[in-house]
Amino acid sequence: MHFAAFALVGESYSDPGKYFRNNTCGGLNLVEAMKEYGVKRIVFSSTCATYGQPDTMPITEDTLQKPTNPYGQSKLGFENVLKWYAEIYGFSPVILRYFNACGAEGDLGEDHAIETHLIPNVLKVALGQSDGVKIFGDDYNTEDGTCVRDYIHVSDLARAHLLAVESDFTGALNLGTGKGFSVKEIVESARKVTGHSIPSSICPRRPGDPDILVSDPSRAFASLGWKAEYTEPFEIIKSAWEWHRSHPSGYISV
Ligand SMILES: NC(=O)c1ccc[n+]([C@@H]2O[C@H](COP(=O)([O-])OP(=O)(O)OC[C@H]3O[C@@H](n4cnc5c(N)ncnc54)[C@H](O)[C@@H]3O)[C@@H](O)[C@H]2O)c1
Asked: Is residue 210 part of a domain?
């Protein structure tokens, strides 16, 4: 299972070479080593960022992939390497395209040195570690003007990996709930979970953020019998909140 990558969209604009070198060329080194040692099965963490901003929703695996940022392009580059290694060398890759990974379970939660993900940043406000949450743009083509995303719990992602590695399936699968929630809806849900007012402010858009990204996860169900168990933001945020409260400084807390 290949999870390693650089995964900051903003940084991928300021230093695209870092992203293509690690995510695409690093992946190429990996499959070359696999070839040398006769390993043909690989489960790869890909991303909905490979789709860019499709014209139609929900996104199926056959939706045209047109990334809108170097990060998504660097992941798509490795997907393409895998497709050719499957055709030429008989590799059997499973490409799992995660939508927005989030949530926590037990001792495992989300802790990045540079946190760009919405839910941990919202919860930092509730923990008193930040004054307010920044909402990047409220003029998107969505009902409340803020970006809509498909939030998938990390335990659901983990379960999909186990099913994938044990299956005979080869190809790409979307991993999402099939439901979209706006940034404002997530902040509101976090207010209910934490009981904190969580002040927010509207800031300029970030480059490369599509209006809406929502999966059609039906192929993962048909192929692996997988579907998300966490489908509501309240439950997802509750799991993250429990972890952040018991790990206020992230993993350093323990
Ligand atoms: N978090 C999400 O919402 C999301 C969504 C879609 C896809 N993904 C993909 O899932 C995977 C994991 O993402 P994450 O959010 O946990 O990111 P992360 O940054 O928390 O984890 C990636 C890890 O890979 C390590 N790494 C990077 N390059 C490496 C290398 N060359 N050798 C060894 N280690 C290396 C990093 O140090 C980091 O610990 C990535 O491939 C990412 O593209 C994540």
From this structure: yes
